[in-house]
Amino acid sequence: MAINVQKGQNKNLITKWICLLAIICFSSCQSFKKESFLNNLESFVNEVELRCENYKENDWTVADKKYNSFIEFKYPEFRSIMTAAEISKANILFGKYKALKVKARILNFKQGLNDMLEQATSFTNEIASDSTLNNK
């Protein structure tokens, strides 16, 4: 009878060790995924920063889908296990992406204004140089 009790205790102890190892593995996997998330987010924002001056509307659509995947799905998954510094880093990267997009839109708007000014100048010069309009 004592041997059966000891076997039961050993089995219980082994089960506890297996559970403990599973928890440790799960924790380390989550930590690895969290680090991967932060690294991927940083790489994404850096890539956008390098290329955004040449982005067309379609490029921004693709980038926005990836950004939304980060902020709507991946960030909420990891936020609860992130440190304050990691949350701050993610927020800085999210803000940087938004700023890059706004700057690109401002530059496009500015270029549009420059185009309109050039067209208006050409229009005015054409009208002013038309001798049939000046003689009457």
Helix and strand arrangement:
Blueprint: H1 2-51, H2 57-79, H3 84-129, H4 131-134
Helix pairs in contact: 1-2, 1-3, 2-3
Write structural notes for this entry:
The chain is built from four helices and no strands. It is mainly α and 136 residues long. Helix 1 packs antiparallel against helix 2, helix 1 packs parallel to helix 3 and helix 2 packs antiparallel against helix 3. The longest helix is centred in the first third of the chain and has 50 residues. The mean pLDDT is 83.
- Give the structural class: mainly alpha
Shape: rod-shaped
Any idea what the radius of gyration is? 30 Å
What is the oligomeric state here? single chain
Short description:
Helices cover 90% and strands 0% of the residues.
Task: Please describe the structure with a list of short key phrases separated by commas or semicolons.
136 residues, mainly alpha, 90% helix, rod-shaped
